User: Fold this.
Amino acid sequence: MTISPQSVARIGLIGSGWIGAFHAETIAHRIPGATLVGVADPQPGAAERVAGPLTGPLGEPRAYLEAAALIADPEVDGVVISSPAFTHTDLVVAAANAGKSVFVEKPMALTLADADRAIAAAASAGVHLQVGFNRRFARDFAAAREVIAQGGVGTPQLLRSVTRDPGLANPGAVKPWTIFLETLIHDFDTLNWFNAGARPVEVFAMADALVAPEFKSAGLLDTAIVTIRYNNGAIATAEANFSAAYGYDVRGEVFGSAGMVTAGDLHATGMRHYSSAGAQSPTARLNIDLFHQAYTDELVAFADAVRGKAPRRDSQVPSGHDARAALEIALACIASVDEQRPIALGQHS
Assistant:
């Protein structure tokens, strides 16, 4: 079906790093009813490099040095924010104040006060605010969540979420506490989503530099395990490591009084090759390989919201409040590692 320009979600992108470039290509080529109209990046030439090859039905996306100019552009209906994490809150607020729908990569904020500021700005402006927790859109994770919601595992008792990244290309560029604020924050949202209706009440975290110990003094922690206790009695663990030699590895599990459900598979396809070397199958090297469909579907949901179309499932679309809840756990992890003790939620900021 041909979509008229009046029904197209005109989206501007802020940040043209690797994930921004991937989102730009997705918006331009893989989202029915959406077009990329602009890219902003303060590095000279960066926006042009991303925008240039992505001509859409409304022409070549415009390039901006200033995010404010893209946000102010009347041709932009919605803004996708994939700039560095410390810029996220101010950009969410600016876009919301301009009446633009907002999709922001995780973390939405780095403090609870900033999370509240972003949520309040979107609510005051009456605009859609969505956060990039893409696992909710992975078909196996969404199917697992449906089983849990329908009582298929009974009362959740033990939950587990795993993230193993295939490597540290440049350990010196990784910021302190990245493992909690930008990696495990995905797992915290997944666990909260799986254990919907329950509230995390206590967090205990351990972390160390086992992959690149020479960078520990600079604040890089590359291996962590977190225990979360919920007010419904369930106990969850989340673990992360930055040296999965076999490829990107993300899995989830919920064990309950009536059964268990699992999600996540590191295989890129269902193909298996059996030979004298053994049984082998292709594995996904990067997150954009393993979650290619999920990265696309989350932006389909955002484009639908920009066009005024109701989301397929409200519970699937991660909100600002979901982002705040995951951030609260991440900040408690930082306090727990610093103080070497369990942290009750609400005792940090």
